[in-house]
Specification:
CATH topology of the largest domain: D-Maltodextrin-Binding Protein, domain 2
Largest sheet: 10 strands, mixed
Number of helices: 12
CATH class of the largest domain: Alpha Beta
CATH architecture of the largest domain: 3-Layer(aba) Sandwich
Radius of gyration: 20 Å
Number of domains: 2
Shape: globular
Distance between the termini: 62 Å
Strand content: 15-25%
Length: 342
């Protein structure tokens, strides 16, 4: 694989537009059916675009891309996509477990080199990168000593009420992960944790994961919950942000890829999944994208202050609908309370 890091990032910086940016009305190139791949992805273009372009260059397979939120795309696959979509790329592994009836198990040719537990080996998904959940705060507005150091402080201290950035779980897979992770980290009932989180938001809900970082960076809100990768990338771009690894610990949940059931181009789907965990792509993640590799031979040291709490995929898959219902009920109650005050 030739010069993936330099080649692709130069192309990206040169302003190559993605297919979906060109507009759905444009005619697709004439490609043989056996040389096509239909890809759904919840990654941002700066993540998926260089990988897709290099995959096309190396394989001659033409990739049709649709991007969007994890929950939105998973629902579309469940309702319409089986038999028409080949691969889902992006979104937390727990989302794949919750929608596992939509995917076929595929064992990557690189599986022996991946950070997989015995339980992971039975999953439908292949990990792509490891993503710790972290806190962020605006360093212009919050002193380091005053920043929240723990989940209990973030969810319970009145000074953060109305100052906490969190994305709508209806569109953000990261937020679904957070809803599932908090009860596991704190060892508390979701019916207590989720309302506490909602109360701290004070009716201020970000539209998507990117909006969390935007709102903290621009000072609209002072603290937020996000992924380490998202925070570090923005800090590297000069944002006045800092990262906190919570004292009680945090979950490190991989995002993933999986083959959709009845994929019309199943062979190409497997080739793409293998490509995402290849050494050059995984090095690209580490060197350019502020992500942690899922390959054992490319492990990076974790911060000394990061205590990892195991994430229970089975519990999360079994309780995801319940978690979302608690969230919906809490949002309704918060809205009714606000209306009553007015």
């Amino acid at each position: 694989m030739l010069g993936i890091t330099v080649l692709l990032w130069c192309a990206l910086l040169a302003g190559c537009g993605s297919k979906e940016e060109a507009g759905q009305s444009e005619l697709l190139p004439v490609v043989k059916e056996e040389d096509r791949l239909v890809l759904y992805t919840s990654h941002k273009p700066e993540v998926y675009q260089p990988i897709v372009e290099e995959f096309e260059n190396q394989t001659g397979i033409y990739v049709e891309v649709r991007d969007g939120g994890t929950t939105e795309l998973m629902e579309d696959i469940r309702n319409f996509g089986q038999g028409t979509v080949d691969v889902m790329f992006g979104g937390g592994a727990e989302s794949y477990n919750a929608y596992q009836d939509c995917f076929d198990r595929y064992e990557s040719s690189a599986s022996a080199s991946l950070n997989l537990t015995k339980a992971d080996e039975d999953r439908v998904w292949t990990p792509f990168s490891e993503l710790p959940l972290v806190f962020i705060y605006n360093t212009r507005l919050v002193e380091e000593d005053a920043a929240p150091k723990s989940w209990k402080e973030l969810l319970g201290d009145e000074k953060w009420k109305g100052q906490l950035a969190f994305a709508d779980p209806g569109t953000s897979g990261t937020s679904v992960t957070i809803l599932a992770a908090i009860p596991q980290i704190l060892g508390e009932d979701p019916e207590r944790c989720i309302p506490a989180l909602a109360s701290q938001l004070d009716g201020k809900l970000c539209g998507g994961s990117a909006d969390v970082v935007d709102s903290v960076e621009n000072g609209t809100l002072r603290v937020g919950i996000t992924l380490e990768e998202t925070a570090k990338k923005r800090i590297a771009q000069g944002a006045a942000l800092a990262v906190i690894y919570p004292e009680e610990g945090t979950c490190v949940v991989p995002d993933a890829a999986a083959m959709v059931k009845r994929a019309p181009h199943a062979s190409n789907a497997g080739t793409f999944i293998d490509f995402t965990v290849s050494v050059p792509v995984q090095r690209l993640l580490q060197d350019q994208m502020y992500r942690r590799s899922v390959r054992r031979d490319l492990d990076a040291a974790s911060p000394a202050e990061m205590k990892i709490v195991p994430f229970d995929y089975d519990w999360t898959a079994q309780h995801q609908d319940e978690l979302m219902q608690i969230w919906a009920d809490t949002q309704k109650a918060e809205s009714e309370a606000a209306d009553a005050v007015e």
